[in-house]
Amino acid sequence: MLKAENGEFLLDGKPFQVLSGAIHYFRTVPEYWEDRLRKLKALGLNTVETYVPWNVHEPKKGEFHFSDLADIETFIKKAQMLDLYVIVRPAPYICAEWEMGGLPAWLLAEQDMVLRSSHPGFLRHISDYFDVLLPKIEKYLSKHGGPIIAMQIENEYGAYGNDHAYLELFKEQYQKHGIDTFLFTSDGPDFIEQGSLPNVTTTLNFGSRVEEAFGKLEEYKPGSPKMVAEFWIGWFDHWGGEHHTRDPKDVANVFEDLLKINASLNVYMFHGGTNFGFMNGANHYDEYYPTITSYDYDSLLSESGEITQKYREVKNVLRRYVDVPEDVEHEIPTKTYGSVKLEESVSLFDTLQEISTVKENLVPLSMEDAGQAYGFILYSTEVNRKGELNLDTEPFRDRAYVYVNGKLEKTIYINDQEKTVQINFPDDVNTLEILVENMGRANYGQHLTDKKGLIRNIWLGEQYWFHWTMNLIELNVLPSDYAGGKEERFPKFFQGTFDANECHDTFVDTKGFRKGNVFINGFNLGRYWNEMGPQRTLYLPGPLLKEKGNTITVLELEGTTTEDITLVDRPNLG
Question: What is its EC number (predicted)?
């Protein structure tokens, strides 16, 4: 077992330096887990670390998923097959630029819920979840001959709160389920006091200034072993921002600073992967910053698993300190499949009966209160007034399209400075429709409780409006019928088919489209937003393809200048 004694780590009684890299199994298709793990081992690392996202494994209360992208046990077994140790961070909060930091959206439907605290309701839900999750992990602990040598308590809690009774719960839960392994907390150097526990090893998260960071740890817990649980070697991107990169030599230099003092470390990220579907998170500071689909993170491996110059620079450093394998530079081929004609199209409004569920209520419900997690929600009601009316848009989360009598009148975004817009109602009785997109719940900080849709009734023309119909559109089901549609307005689904000889990785270039999602054979690759960037292509892993008859579906929200989409062999992150 792993232990911390006299300022160093011991594994089975012998000095041990944790040299780990982060790979999130839920961000990489299972067919590529072994490839990524082999490249991690080939770098010279001895351990792989992963978060465990609660919202992936329990998307609805009491409904548990542990297959496909959620098959954590197979991921652990593949690591063990390669003689890698494993660090598991089951949180339940993971941050990770993941939707709501890994917390399930259904928690927000409970009106008195207090997230990340010792609130009895929150603890009860964690206990129910851990009753299912932890037995799946326990059997892979090192005490049973498995690869798991350490587990984290919560995640960066010092940057959120100070409820130590909540942190103590995790020790109790782990004990209850026989999780007899090395435990640790991790926080930025400025937050370790609030996020640490007595008799639990404190680790740090940072990307530079090694001496300064460990100096703060020594002040707080003298004699602690030196470990950086997240050595940030890159950064994530948000829509409308620049693609972040970090000089490979700078990363290698700080990496060597850590090795010089025999510090243990976990490279965050070794391989970032992809925020498939609607699972990107967001940060909310001065305004709302939704994370892009790619989680490339300027990692040691690219989003598609390519070995980078940063990987090579770090490996050159490691060679001076530990024995590393010979170069293993197996690359997964990519391919240009060319242009695909999207021959069929249909308005979302003509597909509602098939792709949505309907609820009616006196006032509009948020997504969470309506029982919806992701996607879109369409609100509709009648407005029996005529003329220009002021609409308060403050309750809109996050992006909304406002239609009157079937005509688009306004597009609203949460970051708009003006929170009042004028809407024209031409008739004595009008149909008002508001289609709202959830662009990702906040994954960090004070806005973690981040409801979506209309979070309260709208104030229109100096009054509230009652009696609403809501169509819940999670896009777990796509349209099957593209014929006979009467609507011409966006959003629209576009669909085409193509063959993919050899089923190689490729990248979807959405040039000519504006904003929406792309699906391949029903699998949601994620969002694009071309007027904002920086991401210009979506990664399409080869295992999602078939040799013959692939169906590509584009949900375009705003408009397009083309009905063709192109599959290219290189990504474009701006």
Answer: 3.2.1.23
Q: What is d(CA 71, CA 31) in angstroms, rounded to the nearest whole number?
A: 12
Q: What is the pLDDT of residues 24-56, one digit of tens each?
A: 999 999 999 999 999 999 999 999 999 999 999
Q: Which CATH number, 3.20.20.80, 3.20.20.60, 3.40.50.1980, 3.40.50.720, labels domain 2-318?
A: 3.20.20.80
Distance CA 468, CA 488 (A): 24
Closest CA to 37 of 76, 9, 71: 76
**Higher pLDDT residue, 574 or 283?**
283
Tens of pLDDT, residue by residue over 475-520, are 999 999 999 889 999 999 999 999 999 999 999 999 999 999 999 9
Helix/strand/coil for 67: coil
Could you name the CATH architecture of 338-345+479-568? Sandwich (2.60)
Whole-Å CA distances, 534 to 233, 293, 437, 503, 505: 19, 10, 20, 27, 21
Architecture of the domain defined by 352-473: Sandwich (2.60)
492: left (phi over 0), alpha (psi -120 to 50) or beta: beta
Q: How far apart are the first and last CA of the chain?
A: 45
Torsion of CA 117, 118, 119, 121, to 10 degrees: 100
Instruction: For the full predicted model, state whether its pTM sits above 0.85.
Output: yes
pLDDT at residue 245 above 70?
Answer: yes
Question: Sign of torsion, CA 481 486 488 490?
Answer: negative
Catalytic positions: 156, 230
